[in-house]
Design goal:
alpha+beta
């Protein structure tokens, strides 16, 4: 699956403490994988890079799905997403 867009929804709220629910969607041409997860509040000490960490965790979960784990499917990313996702997970 070649990911062309990454969409984050949720992960915020008025409460200053506790885990925040949300979803990360990896969107490709004709495909969408949505991962439900929780993240620390934005006031967390690890706020810096929060978006990148959330996306990295979602990618890790996608790569554990059977079709990716067995190599039947590969995950790649559009060039404009490289800064957010880091090295191509399929390369390593």
């Amino acid at each position: 699956m070649h990911v062309r867009d990454i969409q984050l929804e949720g992960f915020d709220g008025p409460e200053p403490e506790g885990q925040k629910p949300g979803t990360v969607s990896l969107v490709g041409e004709g495909h969408r994988i949505t991962i439900a997860m929780t993240a620390p509040p934005r006031l967390s000490p690890w706020k810096r890079g929060l978006r990148r960490r959330i996306v990295a965790h979602a990618i890790d979960r996608v790569l554990r799905l059977p079709e990716f784990r067995t190599g039947r499917q590969r995950l790649s990313f559009a060039d404009h997403l490289r800064r957010l996702v880091g090295p191509d997970p399929a390369d390593g």
